[in-house]
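EI: anyone free to look at a 278-residue chain?
SC: sure, send it
EI:
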Amino acid sequence: MIRLGEKQDLVVVKEVEFGVYLAVSEEEAQERVLLPKRQVPEGTKTGDTIRVFIYRDSRDRLIATVREPGLQLGQVAELTVAQVGKIGAFLDWGLEKDLLLPFRQQRGKVEQGDRVLVSLYIDKSDRLCATMNVYDSLRTDSPYGREDRVRGRVYEISDNFGAFVAVDNLYSALIPKKELYGEVEPGKDVEARVVQVREDGKLTLSIRDKAYLQMDKDADMLLELMERRDGRLSFNDKASPELIRRETGMSKNEFKRAVGRLLKERKIQITGDAIQII
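SC: here you go
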């Protein structure tokens, strides 16, 4: 069977003026697809095997190409938005016809020139389209282990779970909600530390160092924050976790550790409901 959205080896079953027709085998020549003449390798003859990718042309006809597509079924890739139209965005994937990313398959607004992380699917009309919902296409066989440093693209933020990340644009990972820190946004790359490889192969990440290492960084950051605010914070370590995270990006425990470090170093003092640089 000729498989849409995949590369496969097909046999030349007929030569015509405008190209060659390919099929799975000479015995199954009733199901065939055209490889345009300009892409037929020199010296090709009936019976030869050619490796091609199958997609649809501008008239929605199956067509073969020897060009390397930027994306195939079952893969995840970062593609460039070539233009935005009335039905969605069109992505450059290295073929003559751009790949449609429908509006309903987008995660946030995309614009011309953006680089977006997508996977490929076949829609109800048997056409290839892109989607930014890549969760089910990410792999769970990463080579990474606990404490490895990784880099990945944030593709979704969940209020319940945290930030979903595609490590190396290939592997499934999550930064839990309690580990979110700083500016973590969909479409942005993050560097993180693997804190767990789950039984299903998915990675749990943290964008913070181990507590004893992170404490020094947090203390320095807190001191810089206070310096920008005339040397004081209008709350202390008794404040609510929500207020602390909103103002500093830290959890309450992280904030208390940083405050404790600065108190020990006699760089700050707690006065009433505030913290002040000495």
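EI: The longest strand covers residues 7-16.
SC: 👍
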